[in-house]
């Protein structure tokens, strides 16, 4: 038998096996669809105990006697969004130096030695909207750990040599920021929809790092780190009177008040182009994002949140979503695609979809995503799609709160953003009530192709076709700005 005929025979056999397997699978799916699942039992989250110290520290506790361990999480309103335009990176530098810069009583080395000796884990980070502190220790060391934390927060030394170390880290990150194409497309997309000068999108440059001073950090720390801006969550084998006693003793005489400026206004910049292209000639794939400026979230609107969650599940959330089914499964253009409608209680969010594909398939992938966006805006989703998305959320809901840490994180975040205590309970009820008409309305509210921008990172010469078919193209300069020369 000739080699070609052998290959044809093998192909035919494989095809028949796949076909027969698919038919069996389809029969099994149809059988499974006939099963009637009982209504889920009510799921009640453990109660979080609440107290407030005399100087305004909000304490939240989940008692957990499983192990003699304490987990502590603290949020301070503040962070990157509040940085002055000429001091980008200040929040990150403040958080890092607060952690490694020592105190008036312990130099950096002694501080680390104390943590290591007691097996205390401590991290301090800066996010967009807040500073966060995470601490874990043995129950027997809790009072000492809180005592140390009080010293760090109230009497930081901000050692100069550690600031130099942090500056070097930030400069190294700047030098390498174009190494990751996914990072580029995410960063540049944020700049496109929020504006290059927005605190939510402005990238840190060498000049920002060079300008950072110890005084800047001291002033930034003083503005946000105060007892009346302190939300504390504790998990462990403790009762609230004991927790409150420790915090009253170690923080009670801290009378400083936070000076939090208004949250910066976020407005969509004007654009005279539709497609932005950042050249990366060493790539054989294109990384792209398609999306638009979004809307601000109303913290108590669980009905709107439910609609968005169900919509995201149907359109872009998971392997069975429309985008995944079209762009990966049917067209074979990518290994992954995702994104969705993203909202925030403090500022207008965004709608964005990310993927990557071979350079030659760039236009096909863009066209497919836009086609799916247009489709879900015009025709109501099927009852099967709708029910599948709702069932997925309802059946997985309990696993989002399977640990005390998850429960505490959710509770602190909800309180921080002003989300009502009964929000999750009402959200579950709202999920059950989402209709196909709601999904159609959500699609038209948050997905507006005429307002969307397409961000592309890749090798232009390998992109087959004309990007201008989607609109005016602008080439972006993503080169890293060198430090401004300074006079000696």
In words, what does this structure look like?
The protein has helices spanning 3-33, 90-100, 108-118, 142-154, 160-175, 181-194, 206-211, 214-224, 240-251, 302-315, 322-330, 362-378, 383-396, 404-416, 423-433, 436-446, and strands at residues 49-52, 58-63, 69-77, 121-126, 130-138, 230-236, 275-279, 285-293, 337-342, 350-358, 453-458, 473-476. Helix 11 packs antiparallel against helix 12 (362-378). The protein folds into 2 domains: 49-251, Metalloenzyme, LuxS/M16 peptidase-like (Cytochrome Bc1 Complex, Chain A, domain 1); 275-476, Metalloenzyme, LuxS/M16 peptidase-like (Cytochrome Bc1 Complex, Chain A, domain 1), CATH 3.30.830. The protein has 488 residues and is of the alpha+beta class. The radius of gyration is 26 Å and the shape is globular. The N and C termini lie far apart (83 Å). Mean pLDDT is 91; it is low at 1-33.
Describe this protein with a few key phrases:
single chain; 488 residues; alpha+beta; Cytochrome Bc1 Complex, Chain A, domain 1; six-stranded mixed beta sheet; 16 helices; 12 strands; 16% strand; disordered N terminus
